[in-house]
Design brief:
The structure is a single chain. This protein is an alpha/beta fold. The protein has a single domain (40-318), classed as 3-Layer(aba) Sandwich (Rossmann fold), CATH 3.40.50.1820. 42% of the residues lie in helices and 15% in strands. The protein has helices at residues 2-22, 29-36, 79-85, 112-125, 138-149, 177-182, 185-191, 197-207, 216-226, 231-240, 250-253, 273-282, 298-301, 303-318, and strands at residues 41-46, 49-57, 64-68, 90-94, 131-136, 154-160, 260-265, 287-291. α3 (79-85) packs across α14 (303-318) and α8 (197-207) crosses α9. The chain is globular, with a radius of gyration of 20 Å.
Length: 333
């Protein structure tokens, strides 16, 4: 028994030492902004306190596009699209609460309803009444829920590998290891303050059909922004499943009357392509485009093809020929 006790104590000491070595402190917003803010970054305040980070580029009198990122991502996911579109459209991108350079509004209430309110706050602050809303993954969930809550404000709706349907048995088997761990309450508490770079890299590589597209710079950006004050708590709260949610159903989605484009990668390991087909079946008159050999983030993995399809969709909404687009590059502003 004494030997067993010694072994157990030794293992506990090693695990504790390892946990302490892997702990990482928060990174201040000032530091993150010095590295990741853009030349056109803007901030929405509540009183004297900054809350939401966004960008607003393009002609003031052009049709307006609002782009919303997915879970743990930031407005950077739309860099290639923004460069291509800003010549002909007014492009607004925002970091959702608890993501990117945005602060946490209320982590106890974080979820789809809060994200809908954030889109409203940013657009109203810019005196924007009508726009086409684009959402990726969790941002797609937010986008279709917004279309149901505020149909009068939208010219069009675009869902990119959108979330919202309940998973069928076996559909979660391909989820990245980091997502599986974050669903476990004990694991979430243990991992909250640890260096998650290796797991973040694994999750990103699983999000692309071509894992070579995951760069050190990308991993560092995701990791650093997750360490903004309160962001780790926000991300864990979302993953816990206890946040406010709006589940998808055919009955609910059938009420969407705005022109809708659905884009999805056929090799998406996070949200099965079958979910895109459900959206297409449920939303009247919607158009579905599936990209071969493409993962969860087609706006980054297939930036040229996806933005061209988006432009074609916009031309049907605004009935104007778009100008020759700028070259699309995978990285940058």
């Amino acid at each position: 028994m004494k030997r067993l006790l010694v072994v157990l104590v030794t293992v506990a000491i090693i695990l504790t030492a390892g946990w302490l070595m892997l702990r990482r402190p928060d990174i201040s917003y000032n530091t993150l902004e010095s590295v990741y803010s853009k030349s056109n970054s803007r901030y929405l305040k509540s009183g004297s306190q900054i809350e939401l980070h966004f960008t607003d580029t393009g002609p003031r009198d052009a049709p307006i596009l609002v782009l919303v990122h997915g879970y743990s991502a930031s407005l950077n996911t739309w860099d290639a699209w923004a460069r291509n579109l800003r010549k002909d459209y007014r492009v607004i991108r925002l970091d959702l609460p608890g993501h990117g350079l945005s602060r946490c509004v209320d982590n106890d209430e974080i979820g789809i309803e809060q994200f809908i309110a954030s889109i409203d706050r940013v657009t109203h602050s810019l005196d924007v009444d009508q726009f086409t809303l684009v959402g990726s993954s969790m941002g797609g969930h937010t986008a279709w829920a917004y279309a149901l809550a505020h149909p009068e404000r939208l010219d069009g709706l675009v869902l990119v590998d959108a979330a919202g349907w309940l998973s069928a048995p076996g559909e979660d088997d391909k989820d990245p290891v980091i997502f599986k761990l974050l669903r476990n309450g004990f694991a979430r508490n243990v991992m909250k303050d640890l260096d998650m770079s290796a797991l973040i890299r694994s999750g990103l590589e699983n999000s692309f059909a071509d894992p070579e597209l995951v760069t050190d710079e990308m991993v560092e950006r995701y990791s650093a922004m997750s360490r903004a004050p309160c962001h780790r708590e926000a991300l864990l709260k979302i993953m816990s499943g206890t946040t406010l949610r709006v589940p998808a159903s055919k009955e609910r989605l059938s009420a969407i009357a705005v022109p809708t484009l659905i884009l999805h990668g056929d090799t998406d390991n996070l949200i099965p392509v079958a979910h895109a087909e459900k959206f297409a079946d449920a939303i009247p008159g919607s158009k579905l485009i599936i990209y071969p050999e493409t993962g969860h983030i087609p706006q980054e993995e297939q930036p040229v093809a996806s933005v061209e399809d988006f432009r074609a969709f916009l031309a049907t909404i605004y009935s104007e020929e778009t100008a020759e687009p700028e070259a699309v590059e995978p990285n940058g502003e």
